[in-house]
Design a protein that fits this description.
Blueprint (H helix, E strand, L loop, with lengths): L3 H6 L4 H9 L32 H14 L12 H6 L6 H7 L15
Organism: Trifolium medium
Pfam family, one: E1_dh
InterPro entries: Alpha-ketoacid_DH_E1_comp, DH_E1, THDP-binding
Amino acid sequence: YREPGVLLWRGFTLQQIAHQCFGNTNDLGKGRQMPIHYGSNKHNYFTVSSPIATQLPQAVGAAYSLKMDGKNACAVTFCGDGATSEVCDDEYEPTISLKKVIIEEHITMVIADI
């Protein structure tokens, strides 16, 4: 997935990632999550969801919660081309508009010759 670099940057260790992948007793989720579904309350990092693009409305909800709590923070989410072709903005835009949450879209496309 796209997220581990950010999690490492926030202080999550490679050892913690390994514990999560193996679902052992040192895993913060105690093996209750699928592999590579990292999460850490300490690092304000929610777990990845398996279905495509479900993180988009979740990020809107998190942003709204931060706004309502008056916190000077932001919600960030990651998605790939599957999410952009599977879900259109119309599906989560009403929530964004209703809650007056600011959404910035930054799309980076990487093209590689194979």
